[in-house]
Amino acid sequence: MLLKNPINTITIALMLLAAFLILFFFAGFLEFPPLALTTTSLSDSGFRVEPTKADPFVDLFTAYKKWDSQVGCARFREGHKDAIHASGGSGFNGSTGSLQRVGGDSECGELKMDHVSVLVKGWTWIPDNLDNLYPCRCGLSCLWSKSAVLADKPDALLFETTTPPFQRRNGDPLRVYMDLEPGRKRSGMEDVFISYHAEDDVQSTYAGALFHNGRNYNVSPRKNNDTLVYWSSSRCLAQRNKRAKSLLSLLPHHSFGKCLNNVGGLDMALSLYPECASATSEKPRWWDHLHCAMSHYKFVLAIENTATESYVTEKLFYALDSGAVPIYFGAPNVWDFIPPHSIIDGSKFSSMNELASYVKALANDAVAYAEYHAWRRCGVLGNYGETRSLSLDTLPCRLCEEVSRRGGRNAKS
Question: Is the dihedral of CA 124, 126, 127, 129 positive or negative?
Fold first, then answer.
């Protein structure tokens, strides 16, 4: 069948072809406006783009000023108002089941004792300066001590490295067993069990300040721009090493510790950052200068030993305290424990290449990077406030309350 208007059809086709050729020709000479690298495009849930023009920064104060002028705390708090209002302003969203609820005054009637004494019997890392006489809620006083002289009539015995006695008779102290490792394995001989998980008798998170004392908490205002990531590990687990290597091979980094070390040996942090040295004359230990060394990097890679629900350890909290942005692999419910927009959750990326591209983009955008510090500067804690309140720092009072509810020595065996 012949077309009625063959000339018109051919003309239209030629015009379309010419238009295409013109666009193709000028594409190499015309520069179209690029997508801006903004805090929206770099958000945890939004799409991610590569920076079209590198604008690296090293000074945190400069990054903060840019963020203040373009975003600001009012806008950040408005974006996280649900978390703020849920706690009456403190930023804690109390609806999560990952954290135990600390009782109010309405639970004071459950206490059976006005004073509780806890004797710590077996331990490895529980610090000596936790020993004290504490004023707790509801008028309860709590003596926590490693000394059998000071706690001569304990209401509870705490065991962390050794198992409790097999049998408890009427009138004996309650047996408390503590296991903060991912297995959460009960001894089978305890009356009270402490772990990192909310389902157990008493929860103790890793978010406190008492795990290691005497550190240099100096925080550098300047960030390395040629070396983006800090990582340190001396327990070289195969899976963790594999994950770390797959990401670090794509990013400029310093790897301290025994695993994947690329800084010329152990204990090199003080050679790179002498200002991080402790004032004491004792031989430095790696944790003495940990925070200070981390603070020189824009990012800290934090990989848990195992990805277990609620197992969020000091690896993440040390990085937050240092003023770096953690790149985290671990607990699937990690957001129940931390401030909003405070970490890069590695599990949300489809590949290590995508994650590395995001990290590089973030390192070159002062405003987007400063957004990861807004929780601290604007006072938006999210669940982090409650996580801190359930740490080792507050364990003495919370354990004493549990012992008091059970009646201490008067509890039936």
Answer: negative
Residue 141 vs residues 114, 138, 294: alpha-carbon distances, Å = 6, 9, 38
Supply the pLDDT for residue 83: 73
Per the CB < 8 A criterion, the answer to whether 229 and 300 are in contact is yes
Q: What is the mean pLDDT of the chain?
A: 86
Residue 208's identity, in one-letter code, is G
Contact assessment for residue 261 and residue 236, using Cβ atoms and an 8 Å cutoff: no
pLDDT tens string 355-384 = 999 999 999 999 999 999 999 999 999 999
73 CB-side CA count, 13 A: 10
* HSE value, Cβ hemisphere, 13 Å, CA-based, for 113: 23
Residue 49 has pLDDT above 90, yes or no: no
Q: What is the pLDDT of residue 87?
A: 53
